[in-house]
Each structure stands twice: as structure tokens, then as C-alpha cells.
Amino acid sequence: MFTSVLRQLTPALRAMVVLTVLLGLAYPLALTGFAQVVVPGRADGSLVKRDGVVVGSSLIGQSFADQPQYFQSRPSAAGDGYDPLASSASNLGPESPDLLAAINERRTAAAALDGTPPADVAPDALEASGSGLDPHISPRYAGQQVDRVARERGLSESAVRRLVEKYTSGRTIGFLGEPRVNVLLLNLALDRASGTAD
């Protein structure tokens, strides 16, 4: 009986070892190598550098709170905010008193910061994304912030609007999603335009 079990167990163990090496090591390494050759920036996490130093990723949002010279990101519910290790939504329902209070607080803060009537504050200034890591804002929310950023930077509004237009991406393949502005890339372009590296 023992030899019968051993005869069945040995091929199963060999298959497990071979498949682990093939699918757990060789295949991921081959795909990583292929990606490094074909799309090296994306394979490395779409890292964004300034003067050779990594300042973020174009795929993960970050906070610019308390820095009025920068465009503000949408709110984040991921950990303490934009924590890629705690990516998640708040899981609060649409009638949750906590969510409604947070939205009212964000509306008041965004309206005060940008000098916008509270009723006109863009929705993405009020609501976090599903992942809590969205690096984009809508062109509407970016437009709401132009006057403040131009004033804080000492740039003309038209120069800041041109930068917003330059960093606005259209719908994916022409019809998927909505137009969007990558906040990190826009803020780095603002640093270059105003000669700062804050």
C-alpha cells in the first residue's frame, strides 16, 4: 500500500515543482524582461522623476493639501490618503451621515480655497475615487482652480489654462471614460513654468 501511495505522490510532487518553477518563476521573469524592453517606463511603475529624483507615479495620486500654489487632487479614502498599501473606497453609502458631512466639509473648503460658489464646486472635489488613488481630476475641477494657482504662482491665467489644456487627456480610444487631467504632471509643469521646485 505504501508503495502504491508513493507511486502516485512522486509524479504529483514532480509536477508541482516543475509548474512552480515554470509558472511561479520563469513566466513572471520572462514577462518582466519583455515589458522592460517594450515599455520600460510602465514596467517600472510609470515613475515620474524631477532632476533624476522620483517624485511619484503618474498612476497614483498624491495630496497637495496646504499648498495653494498647486492644483489640488481629489479626496482620497485610502488609509491616511493616497496610501497605495491601503487602496480602497470609504464604503459609506449615499445616505451615510458621515459621507454627507465629509462632502459638505469638502464643499466648504474647496469653495473657500478657490473662491467658487459652493453650488458650483466640481463633484470630484467632493468625492473620493473608488480606489482612493486616482491621480486625475476633471477639466472642470482644474478650471475651477486656475485663478488661484495663477495668482499664487504669479503667472497669467491664460498661461495656466494652456498648461491645463496641455495636460488634459481625452477619452481613452475616443469613447471610454471622461477627459481628465493628471495632477502630478500638471503641478510639475507649473514648477517648470514658474521656475520653482517646491
Automatic annotation (TrEMBL):
<dbReference type="InterPro" id="IPR003820">
    <property type="entry name" value="KdpC"/>
</dbReference>
<keyword id="KW-0378">Hydrolase</keyword>
<keyword id="KW-1003">Cell membrane</keyword>
<dbReference type="Pfam" id="PF02669">
    <property type="entry name" value="KdpC"/>
</dbReference>
<keyword id="KW-0406">Ion transport</keyword>
<keyword id="KW-0630">Potassium</keyword>
<comment type="similarity">
    <text>Belongs to the KdpC family.</text>
</comment>
<dbReference type="GO" id="GO:0008556">
    <property type="term" value="F:P-type potassium transmembrane transporter activity"/>
</dbReference>
<protein>
    <recommendedName>
        <fullName>Potassium-transporting ATPase KdpC subunit</fullName>
    </recommendedName>
</protein>
<dbReference type="GO" id="GO:0005524">
    <property type="term" value="F:ATP binding"/>
</dbReference>
<comment type="function">
    <text>Part of the high-affinity ATP-driven potassium transport (or Kdp) system, which catalyzes the hydrolysis of ATP coupled with the electrogenic transport of potassium into the cytoplasm. This subunit acts as a catalytic chaperone that increases the ATP-binding affinity of the ATP-hydrolyzing subunit KdpB by the formation of a transient KdpB/KdpC/ATP ternary complex.</text>
</comment>
<dbReference type="GO" id="GO:0005886">
    <property type="term" value="C:plasma membrane"/>
</dbReference>
<keyword id="KW-0067">ATP-binding</keyword>
<keyword id="KW-0633">Potassium transport</keyword>
<keyword id="KW-0813">Transport</keyword>
<keyword id="KW-0547">Nucleotide-binding</keyword>
<comment type="subunit">
    <text>The system is composed of three essential subunits: KdpA, KdpB and KdpC.</text>
</comment>
<feature type="region of interest" description="Disordered">
    <location>
        <begin position="114"/>
        <end position="139"/>
    </location>
</feature>
<keyword id="KW-1133">Transmembrane helix</keyword>
<keyword id="KW-0472">Membrane</keyword>
<dbReference type="GO" id="GO:0016787">
    <property type="term" value="F:hydrolase activity"/>
</dbReference>
<keyword id="KW-0812">Transmembrane</keyword>
